[in-house]
Amino acid sequence: MIVIDEIVGFLLANFAAQTSASTLLMSFFLFRFFDITKVFPASRLERLPGGTGIVADDLMAGVYTFVALRLLGAWAMV
């Protein structure tokens, strides 16, 4: 079964990212970390009614990953 919320969140996380294997691997682990830990406000977004909350928390994890990758890239770590 395809889980579209995970795909959308991961695509958002990698928007305009380098297409190297190391960047994608780091992005995957960062995304999973943020998705599992539900850093604020993702934990509140998950409580939204219906499928909205299910998708919203993954989008927030994607935003966190996107920002983290950009910060790491700015510091030349990615």
List keywords for this structure.
mainly alpha; 4 helices
Order of helices and strands: HHHH
**CA-based shape:** elongated
Rg estimate, integer Å: 13 Å
Mean pLDDT reading: 85
Tell me what portion of residues adopts beta-strand conformation.
Answer: under 5%
For the record, the count of structural domains works out to 1
Largest sheet: none
DSSP strand tally = 0
- Level of helix content? over 70%
Point out poorly predicted stretches. none
Count up the helices. 4
Helix- and strand-based class? mainly alpha
Question: How does this model look, in words?
Answer:
- With 78 residues, the chain is mainly alpha-helical.
- The protein has one domain.
- 71% of the residues lie in helices and 0% in strands.
- It has helices at residues 4-13, 21-37, 42-45, 51-74.
- Helix 1 (4-13) packs parallel to helix 4 and helix 2 crosses helix 4.
- The longest helix has 24 residues, at 51-74.
- It is elongated, with a radius of gyration of 13 Å.
Chart the SSEs and their pairings.
Layout: H1 4-13, H2 21-37, H3 42-45, H4 51-74
Helix pairs in contact: 1-4, 2-4
Summarize the structure.
This protein is 71% helix and 0% strand.
